[in-house]
Amino acid sequence: MTVHTQHINMTRTPLPILPISLGVLFLGTAITMPFWGQAYWLHEFVNISCFFIFAMMWNLLAGYGGMVSVGQQAFFGLGGYFVLAMGNLAGVSPFIGIPLAAILTAIMALPLSKLAFRLNGGYFAIGTWVIAEVVRLTVANISIVGGGSGTSLTAFRGVDRVFRQHMTYWIALTCVVATVALILLFLRSKQGLALQAIRDSEVAASSQGVDVIRMKLAVYVVAALGCGLAGALYFASNLRISPDAAFSVNWTAFAIFIVMIGGVGRIEGPIIGTFVFWLINHYLSDYGTWYLIGLGGLAIVMSLYMKDGLAGFIHRKTGKDFLSIKRIYRSK
């Protein structure tokens, strides 16, 4: 009697040509923008890049890792204060300080993770918010960085304004491209597959040999690094920081809104959601409280009738994932 065995081979789906081509076209145009664009649009691009990077990190943590946090503003604020402290107190150029601040923020995430990982589910979400508030209150009592009223970034004194704007813009563009590329590569790797397995079931993932604790810690630290990068970039561009602005829960609220609108657990989600958020913010923010009510109302409608966001809606209509991380199983 002959026994036939079937081997399963798992391969990644190829990246579609159209999105890659559009991305290259966008990048080629964006690189030259300082030479023909207005200063307002350069500054606007930097600000929206910070929202995008922050939203990508929240999507990685919650959408792919299942760790729903409402305290990522802790790392956003730390990134801003690190770049301020290095610039004002140590004389480090903010251009160099931005990536250094992100690294320092990731280091700070290690001890904070010991507190956060003691909690699960809803308690984890509330716990991260409490941690962020503790960090905010701590920073507000450090007079050397401005205390509760904050302070200005003085390290750019003597630097030509046009040069500063151009360099900040190019750094933001580099960070955006690197964020998308690295997260896409990670999610298409075996480690990305393990992370999604943890999101679906920690017990099942552990039974398949996944080191759940180490993977969750790695993603938590990476998300903190990205949030710190966004914070450092934002406040280096805006030249002033205060605890209430840096550690506001609105940062995480806006990130959740962006990801919900675009699509939770999809690479395209934060891209689409950030564009929608920018349109709403740009044209409706002058309406004050009604603007915030409108954001909340739209988020509720999306969660009720389009839970997979605009990216999911496009996928259902076209049958295509523009930045796919899916794998194909073939028998041989």
TrEMBL record:
It is found in: Cell inner membrane. It comes from the Bacteria. CDD domains: TM_PBP1_LivM_like. Its main location: membrane. Keywords: Cell membrane, Membrane, Transmembrane, Transmembrane helix. It holds the Pfam family BPD_transp_2. It is a multi-pass membrane protein. The chain crosses the membrane at residues 17-36, 48-67, 79-103, 168-187, 217-236, 248-267, 287-306. This is Branched-chain amino acid ABC transporter permease.
